[in-house]
Amino acid sequence: MFKKILIANRGEIALRIIRACREMGIESVAVHSTADSSSMAVRLADESVCIGPPQSKDSYLNIPAILSAAEVTGVDAIHPGYGFLSENAQFGRMIEEHGFTFIGPNPDHIDSMGDKVTAKKTVMALGLPVVPGSPGAVESVEEGLEICEKAGFPVIIKAASGGGGKGMQVVRDAESFQEAFSTARREAAANFGDDTVYIEKFLEKPRHIEIQIFGDKHGNAVHLGERDCSIQRRHQKLVEEAPSPALTEKERDYIGSLAADVVQKMGYIGAGTIEFLYENGEFFFMEMNTRIQVEHPVTEMITGIDLIAEQIRVAYGEPLRIKKENFRLRGHAIEVRINAEDPDSFMPSPGKIKQFHAPGGMGVRFDSAIYGGYSIPPYYDSMIGKLIVHGRDRDQAIRRLRRAIVETVVDGVKTTLPLHDWITNQDDFVTGDYNIHWLEKKLAEKNK
After folding, report:
1. Do residues 242 and 302 lie in contact, with contact meaning Cβ atoms separated by under 8 Å?
2. Total-model pTM
3. Which of 185, 252, 291, 365 is catalytic?
């Protein structure tokens, strides 16, 4: 097994990986910017190396600095976490070229799945259902209108290299298509350096269902059930739960087995997530994330499997310990992302945490790197923690979540805890009757 691993990330995911390493008897190295010198990851790692100033481009996205830190500390492998360089194929290749192990998939799979057009073509060939629309990139307004006529309005124009809701335009009629097409291409170029776009049928009330998959270097592949990530704002997930209250056992087995089969055919290695839109009993492939997800604890809670530890073992070359026949879904889990934001305006709220109290009790988990006296820097993503609960069923999980939200104290900055308190008390949430557009509509009604 690896003796020492460098974590090319920050915040709660860096701390999560450090914890897994410690339990496995592996030493950890935390890299950090000057803004994160007092972070919990730096405090708890066996070693730490400063790799640059606060701005991400000069630190957490600085590949030469990260590789230099790996050389100096003599690590065996590098774990990218999520975000930053986790889906950068060139980073993965450079790690291997420098004699380290990349704790992630084959960089070629990162490339093929990172481009939405290529990903769609790849999975179609492997048997996954896709949303009706363009078979590839759309080059002109005329071509786009032809596709819209076949698919039927409304449609959504998406950036091929996109993510996080950027470069997306919903179009409901032919008259507004040209302006939306131009806007989507401009946004795609500005955000991703690539103005390539494609078109899909816009589903009015879909759910966002994702399948957690794993593959190893021995040709094994397995799925670990689904997560329902439909409660979103501006395409950003806020609440995730597993299993989905919308799926039947038959549907769960169908889409999970299909996803695992595709992963096996690809020869995919490590953790990944295949994401679908689900509407009226049908699944449509959306994208594949070639990394561990923010919401991975939801799956850990209902399976009892340490996904980070499994990532490390698979990267080392061990066969998957997970077999379809030796795991089962147990109870229900829900996660809420806690952001340092104004719960009404969603404006970031960096600053010093004066008091902090984490919730506790049966079935409660709080993944975070904050502490009392910690100053949240203004340079990075606003997520400061994840509150995850587990119950014997969905009803108990909801009641446990409400209790844990009220117990959580983060004083000194504004957070989205009040928003989650409100969401979990909505009738539609309690009954599980929501879709990816639900939260934005409810917020619009609330703020009238």
Report:
1. yes
2. 0.91
3. 291
Of the candidate CATH numbers 3.40.50.300, 3.40.190.10, 3.60.9.10, 3.30.1490.20, the domain formed by 132-201 belongs to 3.30.1490.20
- The tokens for 55 are 């701005």
Which architecture characterizes domain 4-87 according to CATH? 3-Layer(aba) Sandwich (3.40)
Ordered by start, the domain boundaries in the chain are: 4-87, 132-201, 207-446
Convert the pLDDT of each residue in 1-21 to its tens digit: 999 999 999 999 999 999 999
Residue scoring higher pLDDT (331 or 447): 331
- Tokens representing 404 are 């844990």
Q: What are phi and psi of 167, to 5 degrees?
A: 75, 25
Instruction: Give the count of beta carbons closer than 10 Å to the beta carbon of residue 9.
Output: 26
291 in catalytic set = yes
Tokens 């979990």 sit on residue: 424
Q: pLDDT digits over 298-316, tens only?
A: 999 999 999 999 999 999 9
CB-CB neighbours of 127 under 10 Å: 10
What sign for the dihedral angle of Cα 139, 108, 68, 296? positive
